[in-house]
């Protein structure tokens, strides 16, 4: 059976069967290759979601600018 | 002058970005900006700031960033932002000394100036000036 024929069958498996298949395949792949697959990359999150101090300083900068514009 | 504008949002795009034009002094730069409701600040990359003619040493407002940007130095910079045919607005950015990051429109102060409707089912992003 080719991989092309196999993939639709795998897609139809239940979650637990997929997990069992995954475990079976993992035992047949050398550790070094698995490490390459699972630790290949770091994914930086650039979104500064908790930079509240920076946001407060920016707000102050905006308010100071508005005051300066009003008085100008 | 219209107060709202709509952009198409492709199925293939993983993240919502819109084309904007940034202006500062006598320079302008066109770029795609990420609409990031999770970002507390607008973020300007170092190279775009330089292209806009900004001088790092002249920016005196130091901004402490957080997360994996905590080690990156950032300074406050006002930049005019034009979105399509909407009236240009002056936004405050954290100009960060980093290149490998997106141009971000965040809570302070892009989302204080605009309403944004993400309509995934219609594949559109609507920007409304208020």
Short account of what is shown:
The complex is a heterodimer of chains A (72) and B (130). By secondary structure, chain A is mainly alpha-helical. Chain A contains four helices and no strands.
Describe the structure.
Chain A is an all-alpha fold and 72 residues long. Chain A has one domain (3-71). Helices cover 69% and strands 0% of the residues of chain A. Chain A has helices spanning 3-11, 15-27, 31-38, 52-71. Chain A is rod-shaped. The mean pLDDT of chain A is 83. Chain B has 130 residues and is mainly β. Chain B has one domain: Cathepsin D, subunit A, domain 1 (Beta Barrel). In chain B, 8% of the residues lie in helices and 45% in strands. In chain B, the strands form 2 sheets. In chain B, strands 2, 3, 4, 5, 6, 7 and 8 form a 7-stranded mixed β-sheet that branches. A 3-stranded antiparallel β-sheet of chain B has the order 1-10-9. In chain B, a hairpin with a 2-residue loop joins strand 2 (17-24) and strand 3 (27-35).
Tell me which protein chains meet in the greatest interface and how many residues each side has. Answer: A-B, 18 and 29 residues
Strand and helix order of chain B: EEEEHEEEEHEE
Question: Would you identify the regions of chain B where 5 or more consecutive residues have pLDDT less than 50?
Answer: none
How would you state the average pLDDT of chain B, rounded?
92
Poorly predicted regions of chain A are none
Work out the radius of gyration of chain A. 27 Å
Give the class-level CATH name of chain B.
Answer: Mainly Beta
Q: How many β-strand runs of chain B?
A: 10
Largest sheet of chain A, in brief, is: none
Put simply, the count of helices of chain B is: 2
What do we call the CATH topology of chain B? Cathepsin D, subunit A, domain 1
Oligomer: heterodimer
